[in-house]
Design goal:
The chain is of the alpha/beta class and 370 residues long. Helix content is 37%, strand content 17%.
Length: 370
């Protein structure tokens, strides 16, 4: 009996990993449905399966696949299309997929693929790509900057690539600019203080040090009185480096480390400015899109894909990476010029609705699958 073609969505981490992966799983699933696959013809693989009884899932580390389990799964379910997260090449799994019925392999990248190459080195990379049999058929990237790391780093043909900007739930993340005090109430912040908001990892390249230095600078210049920095995402003692920096300074009571939270949308809605001050590579962060949907003016580092999130001087400011005095100046401008801040807020929301909604993300991915 012939069975309809199926799609396999291959996730590089264990099942139920968390927020960022969960949102992409939703997009991949809805895109597959929109492309014409029924629920019964959508299959999943994880590197660590927790729901072992589900017939539409397989435990598979696709960076080191086990043919004894993967091959029967592919053949028995007539899987002809695969989406794999961060699937590079060469990779053993690619030949395994293509030799067992898969006709189209799409590699979805949430990171940069390579440093940029030029001249002879880039030409050799292009030749290497064309000489390889086992490469994905199509690559999807979250920003133009990330795509460029493939086309100008690994020699991947532009026609084999697409950009799929991250999408945000514009109902969950919605604005109430200047009228919501949830964060103030939850975190014990005086209502007259404007909240400067950051959400993300605490690793050095994410620029938390730059934010802390901006707070200290504003305290020394007397411009921090009605401002509170709220930073989310710290686990365990991850904030210690930065609390040590603040210890004994006038900025210390104006900085709140709020931890790893599930009420990010409500906290953003209570904030006045969103900040992402990365100093190293940054692609196209989900938090920047969420901030826009929440109607926040943004101040972000002028880096790679991160700079694609905003329109400079329309819904935010681009700053030089690591420049804390420039960050402090832009914060002061937006906190004192309410007309400009309201204009930026309006354009942030419009930009999110027009360019970065989940519905648009799903529609674009469905077209790639077709």
């Amino acid at each position: 009996m012939n069975i309809a073609p199926a799609i396999l969505i291959m996730i590089h981490c264990e099942e139920h990993t968390g927020y960022a992966i969960s949102s992409l799983e939703h997009v991949f699933h809805q895109s597959a449905l929109a492309a014409g696959y029924s629920n019964e013809r959508i299959f999943w693989s994880y590197n660590g399966l927790k729901d072992a009884g589900a017939g539409n899932k397989i435990d598979c580390d696709y960076r080191n696949p086990n043919p004894a389990t993967l091959v029967p799964f592919l053949r028995n379910n007539n899987i002809q299309t695969v989406i794999a997260f961060d699937l590079g090449y060469p990779a053993k799994v690619i030949s395994l997929l293509k030799d067992n019925g898969v006709k189209k392999i799409i590699s979805y990248w949430g990171a940069s693929m390579s440093s940029i190459n030029t001249g002879l080195k880039l030409w050799l990379k292009k030749a290497e790509f064309f000489a390889r049999r086992n490469t994905p058929d199509h690559f999807v990237f979250e920003s133009e900057a990330m795509r460029r790391t493939a086309t100008h780093g690994r020699g991947v043909p532009a026609k084999a690539t697409s950009v799929l900007y991250l999408g945000v739930d514009t109902e969950k993340f919605s604005p109430n600019y200047g009228k919501d005090f949830y964060a103030h109430e939850q975190l014990g912040i005086p209502q007259e203080r404007k909240i400067i908001f950051y959400s993300g990892h605490m690793e050095e390249r994410k620029g938390v040090r730059t934010i802390i230095n901006a707070a200290i600078h504003m305290a020394t210049t007397g411009s921090l009185q009605n401002i509170q920095f709220v930073l989310c995402g710290n686990k365990g003692d991850e904030a210690k480096t930065y609390t040590d920096m603040l210890a004994g300074t006038a900025a210390e009571p104006h900085v709140t480390f709020a931890g790893y939270r599930k009420d990010i949308a409500a906290l953003m809605r209570s904030s006045s400015i969103g900040v992402i001050a990365s100093t190293g590579w940054d692609s196209f962060t989900m938090s920047s899109v969420e901030m826009m949907a929440s109607g926040l003016p943004l101040i972000v580092s002028n880096l790679q894909g991160l700079s694609e999130t905003i329109e400079n001087h329309k819904n935010g400011f681009l700053i030089s990476p690591g420049n804390h005095t420039e960050l402090a100046e832009k914060i002061f401008v937006l906190c004192t010029d309410t007309t400009l801040a309201q204009s930026f807020s309006k354009h942030s929301r419009q930009r999110a609705e027009q360019n970065f909604s989940v519905s648009k993300q799903i529609k674009t991915m469905a077209n790639i699958l077709r």
